[in-house]
Amino acid sequence: MNITVFCSAADLDERYTAPAREFAALIGKGGHTLVWGGSESGLMKVMADGVQEHGGRLVGVSVEFLASKARKNADEMVVTEDLAARKAQLLALGDAVVVMVGGTGTLDEATEILELKKHGLHSKPVVLLNAAGFYDGLKQQFQRMEAEGFLPLPLADLVFFAEDGVGAMAYLEESAGVR
Asked: How far apart are CA 140 and CA 46, in angstroms?
């Protein structure tokens, strides 16, 4: 399975890197491919290192203005013209999407992926990996949107909130019919 992961390129605290290492190991050990932003820094590096260390493949999707920060030893590296093309390529190359902790770029990616799914423009499973309760506030907001009629489909059909990498992988494998 090609698993697209959106996450931060910032160096983060252990409460965020430990779940990332756990999830990366599951991707690699499962023989899956990580499709990610291609960066050689922060949580993106943690994910790539862990996937490679455990035998998985790496497909990076960088953008021209960040190409100098792209991982040199990825199995494949695509460089797009701009961020919009990068997001589209990341979605196109993945069979499933996992959103890990991140800043405004990650939030932008997450909301676009969910908006596309809401409108039926893709049907891939989407997981928000809620490391250290990072997405608790967003989950509450989504629940309010659902309760007040802002979502045209049930929240559970739109996104799955996983508390750890094991839960995220179990959901993805179940969605893909692997289990």
From this structure: 28
Nearest CA to 24 out of 1, 49, 2 is that of: 49
List, as own/partner pairs, every contact residues 103-108 make where C-beta atoms lie below 8 angstroms and the sequence separation is at least 24, other chains included. 103/8, 103/10, 105/8, 106/6, 106/7, 106/8
Nearest to 23 by CA among 41, 6, 40: 6
Q: What is the pLDDT of residues 77-116, one digit of tens each?
A: 999 999 999 999 999 999 999 999 999 999 999 999 999 9
Distance CA 4, CA 109 (A): 11
pLDDT digits (tens, 9 = 90+) for 4-16: 999 999 999 999 9
Q: At what angle do helices 83-93 and 104-118 cross, to 10 degrees?
A: 60
- In terms of Cβ atoms closer than 10 Å to its own Cβ (0-12, 13-18, 19+), residue 51 is buried
